[in-house]
Specification:
Layout: H1 2-19, E1 31-35, E2 41-48, E3 52-58, E4 61-67, E5 76-82, E6 86-87, H2 91-98, E7 110-120, E8 125-134, E9 137-152, E10 162-173, E11 186-200, H3 201-204
Antiparallel strand pairs: 1-4, 1-11, 2-3, 2-11, 3-6, 4-5, 5-7, 7-8, 8-9, 9-10, 10-11
Length: 205
C-alpha cells in the first residue's frame, strides 16, 4: 500500500511540474483523457435585476483533453455540451432558456469549445483560449485554468486508472452570440465555473 501511495504522489508531482513547465524540462509523451461526466461540472452565473446571481448548469456534456508534458503549449481540450440539458432548478425558466429567446436549443442542440492556444502563467496555471460556438456563432473565449493533480485513481472500482483534473474560470458576453433577450435586466455577462476530471483515454476504450 505504501508503494502505491508513493507511486501516486510521485506521478502527480511529475505531471504538476511537467504539464506547465518549459519543454526542455519535460520528459513524458502527450497523454489523452476522456472527461468523466459524473465528476465534472459546467456551471454558469447570471445577474438577475441586480438582486442576485442565478446559478445554472448543463447536465449533459462530453469531451476529451490532452496534456503534453514536453510542450504544454500544445495541450488541448474539446468539449461538446447538449443545449437542452440546461438546468436551473426551475422548470418554466429552463424551458424558456431552451427557447429562441435564449439558447434556441431545437435549432442549435450543441454548444462546443475547442481550444486554440495554451499560455503557461504559473507553476500549475495557464490561460486556455478557444473557439466557443453557440447558436451558430463562434467567438473566442479565454479560461483561467488551474491544474489540480494527475495520479492513478485511489478507489478500487477504478482499478488505478490514471486520472487528471483541473479547474477553470472565465466569462463571456451572451449578446456577442446574439442572445440579448432582457439585457441589461438579465445580465449580459455570464460567469463560468468549470470543474473537470478525466480518465486515461486508453483505459476508457
Amino acid at each position: 500500500m505504501r508503494s502505491i501511495r508513493l507511486f501516486a504522489l510521485s506521478t502527480a508531482a511529475a505531471f504538476t511540474a511537467a504539464t506547465f513547465a518549459p519543454a526542455s524540462e519535460a520528459q513524458a509523451a502527450p497523454q489523452d483523457f476522456v472527461i468523466d461526466g459524473s465528476h465534472s461540472h459546467i456551471v454558469f452565473l447570471v445577474d438577475h435585476l441586480g438582486y442576485s446571481k442565478n446559478v445554472g448548469r448543463f447536465q449533459e456534456f462530453s469531451g476529451e483533453f490532452t496534456m503534453d508534458e514536453d510542450a504544454p503549449e500544445n495541450s488541448s481540450v474539446s468539449v461538446t455540451i447538449q443545449s437542452t440539458s440546461v438546468f436551473t432548478d426551475h422548470a418554466e425558466r429552463d424551458e424558456h432558456l431552451r427557447s429562441p429567446d435564449f439558447l434556441n436549443a431545437q435549432e442549435f442542440p450543441t454548444i462546443t469549445f475547442e481550444s486554440t492556444g495554451v499560455e503557461v502563467t504559473g507553476e500549475n496555471t495557464a490561460e486556455v483560449t478557444g473557439d466557443f460556438t453557440m447558436m451558430g456563432q463562434t467567438h473566442p473565449v479565454m479560461l483561467d485554468v488551474t491544474f489540480n493533480r494527475v495520479a492513478p485513481h485511489p478507489l478500487p472500482q477504478y482499478e488505478g486508472v490514471l486520472t487528471a483534473g483541473f479547474s477553470a474560470r472565465g466569462s463571456l458576453q451572451r449578446s456577442q452570440w446574439g442572445m440579448d433577450t432582457f439585457v441589461p435586466a438579465i445580465g449580459d455577462d455570464i460567469d463560468l465555473i468549470i470543474e473537470i476530471e478525466g480518465a486515461d483515454a486508453a483505459a476508457a476504450e
